[in-house]
Write a structure and sequence with these properties.
Blueprint lengths: L7 E6 L3 H12 L4 E7 L3 H8 L3 H7 L4 H15 L3 E7 L14 E7 L4 E7 L4 H23 L1
Parallel strand pairs: 1-2, 1-3
Antiparallel strand pairs: 3-4, 4-5
Helix pairs in contact: 1-5
């Protein structure tokens, strides 16, 4: 069992719509106060809603460590929350490149003490990519809370 003083959390993501919010909420009701999320598929929304600098998007692209971290940090400040998780990636079945193939996902977590980002390569199956992303994102939050508790 995890005990903490119910930090609030929000989700800023590009890839997985409401399913990620639903997953985090369903497993975290006793751990977190889940306040909501942003859907920022378009770069202009990443800039206006999650405060991602245009320079980062131009230099690194939407699916990158820098963008994931900027989404998490910007979302955290904009939404005034303890933790914000950001997801950006290519679920498939189309959209991948040689450098960023289908299944490439960056998950970032911004909290009061640090911002971390991890890359995952889940493969070519869209449904599995979405499910794995939800689980890995929730686990990243769980690990961070356990580490600071």
């Amino acid at each position: 069992m995890i005990y903490c003083e119910k930090p609030n959390i929000r989700n800023s993501r590009k890839l997985y719509r409401w399913r990620n919010c639903k997953c985090i909420y369903s497993i975290s009701r006793n751990i977190f106060v889940f306040l909501g999320g942003l859907i920022t598929y378009a770069n202009d929304l990443k800039m206006s809603l999650a405060n991602v600098p245009e320079k980062i998007l131009q230099k690194h692209g939407a699916v990158s460590e820098q963008t994931a971290k900027a989404m998490a940090e910007g979302g955290r400040l904009k939404l005034n929350t303890d933790y914000t998780i950001a997801v950006t990636g290519i679920a498939g079945p189309d959209g991948g490149t040689k450098e960023k193939p289908v299944g490439t996902v960056w998950i970032a977590l911004a909290g009061p003490h640090r911002t971390i980002a991890k890359v995952f390569h889940f493969g070519n199956h869209r449904g599995r990519n979405i499910e794995k992303t939800m689980l890995y994102a929730a686990n990243l939050i769980r690990k961070e809370i356990l580490e600071i508790a």
